DUF5683 domain-containing protein (Massilia terrae), 110 residues
Amino acid sequence: MNRAPAAALLSALVFPGVGHFYLRRPRRAWLFLVPALIAAVIWFGDVATQVSTILDQVTSGALAPVPVAIAAKLEKQGGGSPLVPLAEIVFGVCWVGAIIDAFVIGQKSR
């Protein structure tokens, strides 16, 4: 397989920046990997907090263990941290940017 599509697929399917490691461009890889990793940690931390809150309410009996009731509670509860939308944007930009950049670098290094 040509290096450009392989690098782009690695960045697309594994994690942003992995394709750059494949192309032996570690500095460039870290430019995509670190912000994407920080964004993922923020997002997963927020999800874990919301899950913990709902689980506490279900185990205490304050919330029925019915998917419809849980979904209604999550919708009423709203979003968690105000950083989550920013984290989602950062992750998306890193993901798309890493795919495009890995492909372009792979094409140039033929």
